[in-house]
Amino acid sequence: ASFGISLALSSTYLVVGASDAKKAFVFKADANGTFPTTATATINNGNKEFGRGVALSSTHLVVSAHATGVRKAFIFKADANGDFPTTATATLDGYTSESGFGWPVSLSSTHLVVGASTAKKVFIFKKDANGDIPTTATATIDGYTNETNFGRGLALSSTHLVVGAFSSNKAFIFKADASGDYPTTATATIE
User: Fold this and answer.
1) Angle at the Cα of 148 (from 105 to 17), degrees rounded to 5?
2) Residue by residue, what is the 3-state secondary structure of 9-44?
3) What is the pLDDT of residues 175-186, one digit of tens each?
4) Strands (E), the chain
5) What is the pLDDT of residue 152?
6) Which pick of 31, 65, 72, 107 has the fewest CB atoms within 10 Å?
C-alpha cells in the first residue's frame, strides 16, 4: 500500500521505499541504462515505517524508519563493485528523542542531511576522510523553532542545502563555506 512513498534515483540505481511493508526495493539498471521492473534486491527491516525516506549517492544508500519510538536512519555503503548490501553498514540510532527524525533524508557526495520536522531541526553528517558517514551529527540546525514543519523538505547539492518549512510557507538556503561546511544560520530565506 505504501510502495513508492519515497524514491531515490542515480544513473545506476532506483530505490523505492515501502514503509507499510518495512522494505526498500533496489533496482539496478542494466548495461543499456534500463531499469528492470522487478527489484534486483529487497532490503527487509523490522523497524516500523522503514522505507519512509530514501536517499542515494554513488557510494551510499540511506533508508529511514520514521515512527514514534523508532526514528532511525540506516546507512548502506556500496561495495567495490558499486552494489549495495542488504544489511546496514551503520545506523543512526541516537536520535529517538528527536520527533520526526528520519523524514526526509538527502545525500550528496560529501554530506547526509536528516530532517526532524516535528522537532524543527536538521542534522548534518559530513563524510569523513574515508568517505564514511559518521553516526553522530557534525552540525545541527536548530534555531528555527518558530517555523512550523522546519525540516520537512530538504534539497542538497555540493554547495547548497535548502530546508523547507511548508506550514510557514518558507524555504531557507544554507550556502556551504570554502571548506564545504554548511552554516547553522540561513544565508537567505525564500518566502
Assistant:
1) 25
2) ECCCEEEEEECCCCEEEEEECCCCCCCCCCCCEEEE
3) 999 999 999 999
4) 6-9, 13-18, 23-28, 41-44, 50-56, 60-65, 72-77, 90-92, 101-107, 111-116, 121-126, 139-141, 150-156, 160-165, 170-175, 188-190
5) 93
6) 31
pTM over 0.70: yes
The Cα–Cα gap between 3 and 25 comes to 9
Q: Give the three-class secondary structure for 175.
A: strand
- HSE, CB side, 13 Å, CA atoms: give it for residue 149: 13
Residue ranges of the chain whose pLDDT lies below 50: none
User: Quick one: residue 107, left, alpha or beta (phi over 0 = left, psi -120 to 50 = alpha)?
Assistant: beta
Distance CA 55, CA 24 (A): 11
How far is Cα 27 from Cα 81, in angstroms, rounded to an integer? Answer: 15
CB 142 within 8 A of CB 150: no
**CA proximity to 42, closest of 58, 18, 64, 12:** 18
d(CA 134, CA 45): 21
